[in-house]
Design goal:
The complex is a heterodimer.
Chain A: H1 10-23, H2 31-42, H3 45-57, H4 59-67, H5 69-75, E1 86-90, E2 95-100, H6 109-112, H7 117-120, H8 122-127, H9 132-138, E3 148-153, E4 159-163, H10 175-179, H11 184-188
Parallel strand pairs in A: 1-4, 2-3
Helix pairs in contact in A: 3-4, 4-5
Chain B: H1 28-42, H2 49-57, H3 61-66, H4 69-83, H5 89-96, E1 127-130, E2 149-160, H6 162-165, E3 173-182, H7 183-187, E4 195-202, E5 206-208
Antiparallel strand pairs in B: 1-2, 1-5, 2-3, 3-4
Helix pairs in contact in B: 1-4, 2-4
The chains are: A alpha/beta, B alpha+beta.
Chain lengths: 196, 211
């Protein structure tokens, strides 16, 4: 078939699948739009940033977050699909945490949002487990040799988030102001939280 | 399966590209492809998350590496809709106006013979050895830790065993463990002494050190 000699664009293939399913009446009205809305508007790394800021200012909350990350995130309203078992990893001055999913691209959607392209790239997935210090340096985070690096491979159902160290000089800052220091990158561990 | 998806530790890849202020989706079709798969899993119950992951793993390696993430999502989901008879490949190709490449078929005899472990056998601090298994189907044991010894840092709740769930096997739940491996034990690289990798592993993937 001549029509098959050229591969259709991903866009055309997506439309084809959507139309084929729709014509069979299989897609409930608004279902696709609902998923897209949740993914675009509700799953947001700002959620994770708020969790971290709360942990920085409220020792009791931090304790709960470290003991049961799922429940603590749910206190702030962040729960659901790909957030069924959240474990928060606390950075220490001498130990840094970084997250990867080498086999697909799992992350804690409700608190980290859908992952960025770099997280999903073969380069990151292949290399960060084997040479994390070099990969982080290439991405702008230079960790001295005396700082241990733990790379967390998301190979099962645990979904991780990093609690970066609170930057010095932020004593007395409001939770909102602190949350602005916590980027999507810091929540995965390829950057630190900084007040600069 | 020992597939292209199991990238951890593979050499030859260059620098990670990084985009400042990246949008959630770069193009509308990517959002649609993502949503079609989520609806396929959550609403239509056409497939589960393990079947979905494996459908992507079954993509021919060259296609896998050349496709962006959402093209892999699309290919995996479409493969499962076709395999389960919900849509027809010829119809999809006619609609798309060109070829619609899918993943390769499932392997015959896809599961490793692993005894179910309904009760957690290990605790924090235990030394465990990862079984050196090579199932032809879906598994979540990365190649880089097979046969290696690590230390249990954390015991997670019991979750559905993916090797079975991806292939219509008997449903079973097992605890997973966060097992820390010294990077020097995984790859013996010089200069990696202060680095480790923690892998989340189901109980039946593991043996006790003394066994």
């Amino acid at each position: 078939m001549s029509a098959k000699t050229k591969i259709a664009s991903p866009e055309a293939r997506t439309e084809a699948l959507k139309d084929a399913l729709s014509e069979k009446g299989l897609i409930p009205e608004g279902a696709l739009e609902g998923v897209i809305h949740t993914a675009s508007e509700e799953w947001d790394p700002k959620n994770g940033a708020r969790v971290v800021a709360r942990a920085w200012v409220e020792p009791d909350f931090k304790k709960r977050l470290l003991e049961d990350g799922t429940k603590a995130c749910a206190e702030l309203g962040y729960e659901g699909i790909q957030g069924e078992y959240i474990v928060a990893l606390e950075d220490e001055p001498t130990r840094h945490n970084v997250i990867v999913c080498t086999q697909c691209s799992c992350t804690a959607w409700p608190v980290l949002g859908l992952p960025a392209d770099w997280y999903k790239s073969p380069e990151y997935r292949a290399r960060v487990v084997r040479e994390p210090r070099r990969v982080l340096r290439e991405m702008g985070l230079n960790l001295e040799k005396n700082i241990a690096i733990r790379v967390w491979e998301t190979s099962a159902e645990t979904r991780y988030m990093v609690i970066p160290c609170r930057p010095e000089g932020t004593e007395g800052w409001s939770e909102d102001r602190l949350a602005d220091l916590v980027t999507r990158e810091a929540l995965v561990g390829i950057a630190l939280a900084t007040s600069a | 399966m020992d597939g292209i998806h199991d990238l951890g530790g593979m050499a030859g890849f260059g620098k990670v590209s990084y985009e400042e202020d990246e949008p959630v989706f770069h193009e509308p079709w990517q959002a649609t492809a993502f949503a079609l798969n989520i609806v396929g899993i959550g609403v239509l119950r056409n497939h589960n998350a393990d079947e979905y992951r494996h459908s992507i793993e079954r993509m021919p390696p060259i296609h896998y590496l050349q496709a962006c993430y959402y093209e892999r999502v699309l290919t995996g989901a479409a493969t499962l809709f076709v395999e389960k008879g919900v849509v027809d490949l010829d119809d999809l190709e006619a609609r798309a106006g060109g070829a619609f490449p899918l993943a390769m078929p499932n392997a015959v005899d896809p599961m490793a013979d692993l005894a179910p472990q309904p009760v957690a056998r290990f605790k924090i601090g235990d030394r465990v050895i990862v079984k050196d298994i090579h199932p032809k189907g879906h598994t979540r044991v990365p190649r880089f830790c097979r046969g290696k010894t690590g230390t249990v840092l954390h015991v997670a709740p019991a979750f559905s065993f993916p090797d079975a769930a991806a292939h219509g096997g008997v449903f079973r739940k097992e605890h997973t463990y966060h097992v820390e491996f010294a990077s020097t034990d995984l790859w013996s690289d010089a200069g990696a002494e202060n680095e480790s990798v923690v892998v989340d592993l189901w109980d039946s993937y593991l043996d006790g050190e003394a066994s």
